Amino acid sequence: MQDDICTAARFYASGAGENTARLLRHRMQAFWPRTGSDRILGLGFTQPFLPLWARPDGPPYISARLNTPVTREAPAVTPEGIRDCVVTADRLPFPDLSFDRVLMVHALEVTQRPDALIRSVWKVMKDHGRLLLVVPNRAGWWAHSDGTPFGQGEPFSARQIARRLSQALLCAERHDGALFMPPPGAGHRRAAALAENAGHMLLPQLGGVFVIEAVKDVWSGVPAVTAPALIRAPRRIYEPG
């Protein structure tokens, strides 16, 4: 059964996978051009993307592969400056408030407990933390292609992912589309780049994946407190008739 699954490690080791990662990195960099000394957690399968921000003098980044058939297989080489581990969706082995930024790719769609996963992410993010989420678009080509890891698991509509983020006390600030060419064309670098540019300008909602940036909403879970009345109504004085 597992031999029939297109694992993320095998896909990104191929020519089509390398080109797909290059296109996604370009879109991610538009969201996060600089990260400074921020601590970053990559969750799902993120080793092809974390080197985008890694610096020799910066903190090590964590690549946390989810323990699923799609993402648990390790890549052949771990990039320098990245520490790799395997985790479960509802028990991330990191202290609360550990990371300034979290990148999620091949995560929500492949886990059987997406709500538990995203709540776990909320806990390990700092109060000013930012999340960059890549999920397959239910209406796109990539969600229906068994030959890529984006075609494994459960894709999402824009409304579904917005609702999940809101329920997990995360506020979506920006969103975009990516991977506009059909999956069979992913290996053709020039054609894929042309399709990416044209799709991004003309039909951004029809990309193969959604790219969403969200921030931690620390105030959503705070109950509202009714302020005491500053002005009391005058007492009525009873006068016998």
UniProtKB/TrEMBL annotation:
The keyword Methyltransferase applies. SUPFAM superfamilies: S-adenosyl-L-methionine-dependent methyltransferases. Pfam families: Methyltransf_11 (PF08241). Residues 85-132 form the Methyltransferase type domain. It comes from the Bacteria. InterPro entries: Methyltransf_11, SAM-dependent_MTases_sf. Signal peptide: none annotated. One of its GO terms (molecular function) is S-adenosylmethionine-dependent methyltransferase activity. Keywords: Methyltransferase, Transferase. One of its GO terms (biological process) is methylation. This is Methyltransferase domain-containing protein. The lineage of its organism: Bacteria, Pseudomonadati, Pseudomonadota, Alphaproteobacteria, Acetobacterales.
